[in-house]
Amino acid sequence: MISIFEILALTTLCASVAQSELLAPCHINDDVCLKESVNKALPQFFSENKTLGVESSDPLKLELIEGDLPDIKFKFFSPITTGFKQCHIKNMIMNLDALTLHEELDCPNLETTGKYEISGRLMNVPIEGNGDFKISAGTYKIILDFDLETVVGGDNKAYISMKSFKQKNEATSPISFDFKNLFNGKKDLADNALTFANQNWKQVSELLQDPIWNNNMKKIISNANKYLMTEPLDQIFISP
Q1: Taking residues 77-82, what's their average pLDDT?
Q2: Measured between alpha carbons, how far is 215 from 126 in angstroms, rounded to an integer?
Q3: Given CB 3.0 to 4.6 Å as the disulfide criterion, which of 54, 103, 169, 226 pairs with 144?
Q4: 85: closest CA among 22, 135, 39?
Q5: 237 — phi, psi (to 5°)?
């Protein structure tokens, strides 16, 4: 099977390395250069591009996020998340031969708003209601591991695409939870649930976060892959 290095060598023989419009070219295996290049491009990756059919990732708009967990069930209707353009990659390792990518990011000041329905228990505290909600996060540490694939475009050049991913998320500073109309407006019950959620923000975020992050990342990766299909590998990487 032909390796990614052989693909790059062949494409480089056919065309000189051009200046990338999105990612500054880096030498193969130069992860420091690649990290700096991607960090500079992140705001564009998160931006809308109607010509390419790319929707915005900041603000990120979804139709529905649904959590069906053992102790709690919730639905977020038309959630909008802002702040992804402030994310910063702290570490990045790409193995082009194995087609894997490891990233570690810090994302400050993420905020999600929309409508909600929720019922169940926040650990040992009951919660129930529907209405408007806002979740404001301080800083999230995000670890992503991607399986990549190469795609040959209509120009017969090789492109990279993110095929699948695994993620770990950790809130590293307080999160504010604001759910209006809990318990149909019964103030004592609502105040008790919200006070518990905000005092125990880390445990509550770990309880709720997987469905939220999974849906957000699927949309972000779908958008990013459309951008990557404009960047041939022989423009992203300089062969030895």
Answers
A1: 98
A2: 25
A3: 103
A4: 39
A5: -120, 135
